[in-house]
Amino acid sequence: MNNFKYRNPTKILFGKGQIENLATEIPADAKILMLYGGGSIMKNGVYEQVKKALSDYEVVEFGGIPANPEYSVLVDALKVIKEENITYLLAVGGGSVIDGTKFLSAAALYEGETPWELLTNKKPVTEGMPFGTVLTLPATGSEMNSGSVITRAETKEKLAFGGPGMFPQFSILDPEVIKSIPERQIANGITDAFTHVMEQYMTYPIGAKLQDRFAESIMQTLVETAPAIMKDPSDYEAASNFMWSCTMALNGLIQQGVPGDWAIHSMGHELTAMYGIDHARTLAILAGNHYRYNFETKKEKLAQYAERVWNITEGSLEDKAHAGINKTEEFFKSLGIDLKLSEYTENYSETGSTVAERFIERGWNGLGEHKTLTPTDAQKIIEMSY
Fold this sequence. Notes:
single chain; Rossmann fold; 2 domains; 6-stranded parallel beta sheet; two-stranded antiparallel ribbon; 14 helices; globular; alcohol dehydrogenase (NADP+) activity; butanol dehydrogenase (NAD+) activity; metal ion binding; BDH-like; ADH_Fe_CS
């Protein structure tokens, strides 16, 4: 197991009725900017609950943060922060709203030429305006980590950044919000969380037995819970396990002391930036072929995964490893996820080479857990996924 330092300062308020405790978590003298997305919170009762809980505060609202948090929209929100002398941010939404709020937290205190530099200079963010979150869509784990991904439409880029200054002070997780989430978004959330675990787990054995068991238990829970939550989003027990699994998948716990891959995400972000494909679906498109392409370096963990998560005990190590890949794709398909890029766009023929060129321009010459996955390798994996 590798050396590691671990700290997660985010306070979690989990369960029914927790939104009413908002006022206990935010300073009494705060001037709040409440950020949200397309307006679903107006329909599912969350908006009303939040406003009631914040009735004693001065609250300014900013809605319309898109599914892939758009830089130009966030720049408009940044102007509001400065013009209104905002002192506290509250994200009410899913991962995109939370990621956008993290960007605004950092940008509000950034003194450089342009806040886009936060995504390009690769320097960890050490301080930001304080913020909390009310989670409405489990998927990304952004409610309990310090990372963020922002899209810039004008340049067709989707880049990640983060740092110790970007943890939410608190996050409210009420599983009852899931009953109003469309089936497509639930499928996306399951797929996103499952792939988050795979990116931290599907590398090579390093003797981190507890982290492996943590990771496997999250994947097992998602597999067991998926049919129930897809069938009935109002099933509170299923919703609770689904929501907490999504949070645990990317709150930093299972990545301690182990190598991480994240090449699937690097490639997937490009597909979203180029074609607007749902983030989770880009991961599903690429995952199986990524593991096939890197089979020799991943086969031991693939076989372990097949045995422990899918109960595949017969055959050679290689047989079990291949079966694990196939089971993963079958799982994504069972959620209604298409696994070929050509099922999302007709303009896929140059995608691999375009992504490779972008990686070369950014100097991304060594991705994956071994830092050996080249832009040419990425091109081949994407082309396998057409």
